[in-house]
Fold this sequence. Notes:
- By secondary structure, the chain is of the alpha+beta class.
- The protein has one domain (8-206): Multidrug-efflux Transporter 1 Regulator Bmrr, Chain A (Alpha-Beta Barrel), CATH 3.20.80.
- The chain has helices at 11-14, 16-19, 62-77, 113-126, 157-170, and strands spanning 8-9, 27-31, 34-43, 45-46, 54-55, 80-81, 86-93, 99-107, 136-140, 143-151, 173-183, 197-206.
- The strands form three sheets. An eight-stranded antiparallel beta sheet has the order 2-10-12-11-7-8-3-9.
Amino acid sequence: METAQIITHDNRKIYPDIYSVKPGPVQILRVPKMQYVTQEMSTTFHMNWAGRPEPLDEQWIVWKIVNQLKQITKKSIGYKFKLMPTEIIWHSINDDDKYNITHMMQVPDCITSEIYEEARANVEKNLRGQTVPKTKFVVEDSTISAQKLHVGHYQDTLLTLQEIENYTEEQGYRIKGNRREIYLTPAMQCHLPETWKTIVRVEIDKLD
Length: 208
């Protein structure tokens, strides 16, 4: 008797407007309700590494938890999924010249807080007594956002943000909160900087 093959779900394909953005003008769109594993960090970044900004002084634990989520959902409910790109919300620079950021990774709707807690517990067990940074399982409501694909070095994404700011103001919107960057360039691959792809996104609302 043949065993049924488990389909691998890829949220890049499920949400192409969110994660498969093509080069072009600024877009205004509704981002659906989505959920993430997140980690608040204050860290220094070396922005020349091909793949994503590299943390120099803190451990990124989000991907370890999401890898555990993959194992749990595949075994318990037969749901297999691909890892999503690293996302960072950039908040501010503190007195130590470190960036205050939220590191996050989107996870499927089938993930619950109970499954998340099980995955985190597995990571803590695997790290054998090491201090595991705080993380959260977060559900974000649907928002109206503006975004544009930045192609080039990460250090230049503020130029794309300025394009977004100019366009949204012309269209009668204002930006709410901090910018989010989604790093589409696969980690650990040595692409030339001019090929790196980053989605720059901000939440917006209509001016009164």
